Amino acid sequence: MLINGTPVNLYGAKQLTVDFAPSTQNITYEWNPGARLPLLVDQRVTFKELTVVLKVTGSSRQEVNRNISRLHALAAGEAQYKLDGYKGWVFIGVLQENPTAKKTVDPGVYKMTIKATGYMRDEEQQVIEIGRKSQEYVFAEGTRDTPVMIEITPEFDLATFGIYGIAERGIEIKNLTKGHTIYIDGLTGTVTQDGQNKFNDVVMFEFPHLQAGEQLITFSENVCNITLRYYPMWL
């Protein structure tokens, strides 16, 4: 098991158990007076919960508690968990509450419980090479919407370029320069070209994302090479 890339066994710890709670779904479901059927107004998927129990060892209770403190420090802030038995998955989140530590009959062994709230995604980033097309059906792995990075490299100078089906009301990009790649990154919330901020040349109401499953993405012209990068996310 790794926390932020550090093996927990460096601090005398071993993963014992892992439990996940399904992601929370916030649903607004109304049945208006006179209506024959209810109406699904809104549906949003939010946090998933993780509980990990660790066996923490040391030569004395003092050393065990120091190891517990080091593990607590690893998990502080937003942390990334790679769990034994869940190859290819990464849980990213923050502590839901302070970790707990319980003594055992052995003075050199404690049980530490970490509870975190966050989300689960694949460790490996998926790449979809679209190339120069006016439209493309793409399939996104996973079971929930996921942010996506779009790379746009124009073959010619363009005044504007539009992308639709990947964000509400589409995305319009202005002042594209031949051979210079624009990155619209839904993961970091940035728009750049040649390492410089290009947000002022983009009109969009939300950052791009992919729905789980198949969707159609269209482009105003087929003169830009398009690449999508995303991490499949799971309920």
How would you briefly describe this protein structure?
With 235 residues, the protein is mainly beta. The protein has one helix at residues 61-75; strands spanning 2-3, 6-7, 13-21, 25-30, 39-45, 48-57, 79-82, 89-95, 100-103, 109-122, 126-131, 135-140, 146-154, 158-164, 171-176, 182-185, 190-193, 196-197, 202-204, 209-210, 213-219, 224-230, 233-234.
The name of the CATH topology of the largest domain is Elongation Factor Tu (Ef-tu), domain 3
What number of structural domains do the residues give?
Answer: 2
Q: What is the name of the CATH architecture of the largest domain?
A: Beta Barrel
| Count of DSSP strands | 23
- Determine the number of helices (DSSP H or I, runs of at least 4 residues): 1
Terminal residue distance: 21 Å
Percent of residues in β-strands: over 45%
Helix percent band: under 10%
Largest sheet: 9 strands, antiparallel
Query: Helix/strand/pairing class, anyone?
Result: mainly beta
Q: What features would you describe in this structure?
A:
It is built from one helix and 23 strands. With 235 residues, it is mostly beta strands. The protein folds into two domains: 121 residues, Elongation Factor Tu (Ef-tu), domain 3; 109 residues, Jelly Rolls. The strands form four sheets. Strands 1, 2, 3, 6, 7, 8, 9, 10 and 23 form a nine-stranded antiparallel sheet that branches. It starts with a strand and ends with a strand.
